[in-house]
Amino acid sequence: MKNQERVKDILSDFNKTQFQNSLIEWFKKEQRILPWRENQDPYRVWVSEIMLQQTRVDTVIPYFNHFMEKFPDPKSLAEADEQEVLKAWEGLGYYSRARNLQTAVKEVVADYDGVVPDNPKDLGELKGVGPYTKGAILSIAYDTPEPAVDGNVMRVLSRILHVEDDIAKPSTRKVFEQLVRELISEEDPSSFNQGMMELGALICTPKNPSCLLCPIQDQCRAFEQGIETELPVKTSKKKQKKVPYLLLVIENDAGEVLIEQRPSQGLLASLWQYPMVALEDLDHEAAKHWFYGEYGLKIEWGEPVEQIKHVFSHLIWEMEVVIARVVGGQLDHERAQFVTPQEMSAYPFPVSHQKAHKYISQ
Prior knowledge:
This protein has helices at 2-10, 16-30, 42-52, 57-70, 74-79, 82-89, 96-111, 120-124, 131-142, 151-160, 170-183, 189-202, 221-225, 284-295, 351-354; strands at residues 241-251, 257-261, 272-273, 276-278, 297-301, 306-311, 315-329, 336-339. The chain is of the alpha+beta class. The N and C termini lie far apart (67 Å).
């Protein structure tokens, strides 16, 4: 009730019809040509929205095209081996997106005859389909007036409507979802929601918004007051923890390389990598003894050849790349194996470890 009153107050003197018409007209004229906009197929919309989470449009385009070639429909994705799916996702990051997508698509094939649900309840119960993805699929593919609110949309509306709520708080998202429910076009929700996304991507950008090109400029309260760069309000996240590692490129006498699969749960789950040794409590010499105890192999290495830094949302890996060779022992590790350099291309690696491929002897 409190949110409803607040929303009513925010929109009390705002011309919704003018806003809808200006936004939709601008979108239809200025929208970018993107592969997932070729049609309104809900599966294509779904895949694109999952890929676009935390990832730039230019980066996503080739991945989307490749993914759709390999898995053109829900059935082909549902039946694929998980490692094949992760390989197609290799380099996009946030790999739980790919696993959750495949899990959800399997459910669509099993329970809905391969047709993506067109109602909020069933769609929202699928793994990895949160409120934003649900709203995007329903509005873009099925023309259902459902809000699709992400950081872009909150930034755009916080400026247009002069809302100073902290967008880092979950409660603020509820306010913006309610605002979109009131503002969305019943006649063309697909163009409305895509227009909001496009406005945030092209015009109402985080820094240096192009206000003079904005189709909503004459209705924008922040622009009128000259405070567009001060919005949205967003508290900063906690500082990421830095973790030092050795990344070991290890070869045996046969020229094979040691790789290992990460656990099936957690960060970068089920991807393959070079062995890593955490250096928080170990020096280089102690790391060799730890490695022998953990893997059953005695190894020798020289000085680090490169420093690789990889930033996650909550931590930073600082990795020293070391080239090593096996000098004794027997491999004894359930998730590790030796492969030839030629075989490695079949295994999905995270971007941070792909950078070390160049140190393998060919």
